[in-house]
Amino acid sequence: MACKTTLEEWNYAIEMLKRCALPKMKNEVFPLLKFSYDNLPNATMKCCFLYCCLYPEDYCIPKKRLVEYWFCEGLLDKFDRINEAQMQGGDIISSLLNACLLERDGEDCVKMHDVIRDMALWITRKFEATENTFFVKAGAQLSQEPYVKAWERVKRMSVMKNEIQLLKETPKCPNLRTLFLSNNKLEVISDGFFQFIPHLTVLDLSENYYLRVLPKGISQLVSLECIDLSWTGISELPMELKSLTKLKMLDLRYMSHLEYIPQYLVSSFSKLQIFRLWFEWSLPQTKDYPNEDNVLNEGNEKLIEELKGLKRLNILSTPIKSMFCLERYLSFDLFRRRTQALQLTDFREPEMFDVLCLGNLERLETLQFIDCGIMEIKMEKLSTWVSSSSNSPSCFHALSTIQVFQCKKLRDMTWLILAPNLRNLDIIWCYEMEAILSEEKLGEVAGVIGISHPKPFLKLETLYLRHLPKLKSIYRDALPFPCLKHILIMYCEELKKLPLNSDSAKGNLLSIKGSKDWWARVEWENEATRDAFLPSFKLWY
Asked: Does the pTM exceed 0.90?
């Protein structure tokens, strides 16, 4: 009712509520809540709302992933490209938030209040338009797959966050379009399981760490548009996946056992719009995409060649190993416009990596460095960049997350001043790191970009600094940190001062985690400041 402003609208609402005669919590509470649902402006928004009840209670639902599932399921029918559909999805999420049917859970997630979720499930069971279209046993502590006859007629099914190990049945589900099997203990899926699910469009198998093999029967899912295999133990992608000619989204992140991607498999998905490949710490040793320390890095080359032929590609997350492959990658306009996340691994040559070469990746949001050399900015290049009328002094506007792992020669990260919208910074095992923002280099950069007193980290929400034994400084002065929520300091014995004063992080529920010994050594501008941040401190272990 937040947007209802006239007496007539409120009187109408009262009359409609009076007419509700549904049986007691269901009698008294759900009809009140359903009034907000009934007042959603269209069927699309109602379907998108009900889709959220597929997730377990209190679940942090990533907004981007939710919109991608809506898109692949065909709920966002105004656009046929994901980057445009994200605008429609974002508008729907905003409307559901304004109607108090969803709640914010940080910047990137939403959640459903338990009672709202119960009401949504009640709607899926009790009303003709949605009756028997949902089967939801998410987080229900199931150890076996549900009785097949109970879900053969449904359209959307979720048994995520359970302990199911085996899927042995051969269900006949002519209407099923979305199937959430994520976060179970799946080890085996029978070859016949997918045989009679002809209209399945969204399949989430993520977080099944013990699942080593995909069944050959997956080739029967000819309508599939989205498959999420992230965080699974699958060691190779079967050639049978070539049958999935309608595939729009393929997520292969954090598949630590992945050894084999058949050549020309990825390029066969001509409708692919979202492709994510991301490894933990290093690229795997693969047959067709080998992880070899050579100049050409054959595996990356083959993958780049396959990806560049996918003309519909809109969202791309990929690992790159070697400067040669990065230069080739950046030479394609498709990648410069579509890359959302980039993982740079083992960049030891050249010894100094000029991060400004990534400045033309206009949609780059996540950047990860693993076992790389020194990252710097060449001032003459920065000067040329700034002087160009088409460029902003801050060339990493979209960049929100940076992770730096095991870059042993790295001394500072002063180039971060060029990422004004950075929200998450995680640096670990950089043994030569002395300062996050070097005072000397910061003066040089500030002079070139024409900002005499830069204010870094205005959007920063999380700061994780671990195993940096030489780190002495984050920034020379105290910063306002209007968005900061979490600081984690581990094994940074020389870091004795935080860039905080009595005005920092005002109004935030700031959490500072570290060791008791480290906290005792932290120096503050005065006792009042120390006392103000004392309630924020927690032991990290």
From this structure: no
Q: What gap in Å lies between CA 20 and CA 119, rounded to an integer? A: 15
Residue 110 phi, psi dihedral angles, 5° rounding: -130, 165
Pairing of strands 202-204, 374-376: unpaired
- The tally of domains found in the chain comes to 2
Which tens digit of pLDDT belongs to each residue from 26-42?
A: 666 787 788 889 999 99
Determine the Cα–Cα distance for residues 248 and 519; give it in Å rounded to an integer.
49
HSE-CB at 79 with a 13 A cutoff on CA atoms is 14
* DSSP assignment of 213-276: ---GGGGG-TT--EEE-TT----B--GGGGG-TT--EEEEET-TT--B--TTTGGG-TT--EEE
The β-bridge relationship of strands 374-376 and 188-189 is unpaired
* Amino acid making up residue 274: I
Rounded Cα distance between 211 and 280, Å, is 18
Q: Look up the domain containing 446 and give its range.
A: 347-379+395-540
Calpha distance 471→466 (Å, rounded): 10
In a domain, 168, yes or no: no
Quick check: 283 pLDDT over 60?
A: no
Burial 105-121 (b: 16+ CB within 10 A, else e): beebbbbbeeebbbbbe
- At 76, which CATH number? 1.10.10.10
**DSSP conformation class of 473:** B
